[in-house]
Design goal:
The protein has about 160 residues and is of the alpha+beta class. It has one domain (about 20-145): OB fold (Dihydrolipoamide Acetyltransferase, E2P), CATH 2.40.50.90. Helix content is about 35%, strand content about 25%. Strands 1-2-3-6-5 form a 5-stranded mixed beta barrel. The relative contact order is 0.16. This is Nuclease.
Length: about 160
Amino acid sequence: MRFTTIILLLFLLCNCTIAQTTIHGRSVNVADGDTFTLLDDNNTQHRIRLDGIDAPERGQAFGNRSREYLANMIVGKRLSVSFTEKDRYGRILGKVSTDSIHDVNLCMIKSGMAWHYSYFNSEKEYADAEKDARMKKTGLWVDKNPLNPYEFRKSKNAKNNH
């Protein structure tokens, strides 16, 4: 009996899923094409990083356009952010939606305003959306060889360390 109880407890512990949380509010600041500040219904501010995408940085080609595109989708709208974790900077890694847009993150990729961040996200729909945007030369894909934000940050850090 004791052995069965232990096995059952281990089984339950191993099969637990991470609880998803959803917060609601409005954007009070859009930093760039994948990061903004949300003011929730309790007047608490949260830094939100759109999960599964990587948008051009400030000072990078399409950086301003990407930020403006995100702002046009979310500013003045009621937002829902679903998430399970925070990143190493304390930002909520979330999937964002509005009353009219089911997946803002996906819209950023489809419009060519962000890369699918495949290193941290394996959603096939995001990967397919990036392939389609590349093929259609949508947004940043109009450039022949756009520099992804990871490489841009890496080269910027290398310059700052010399």
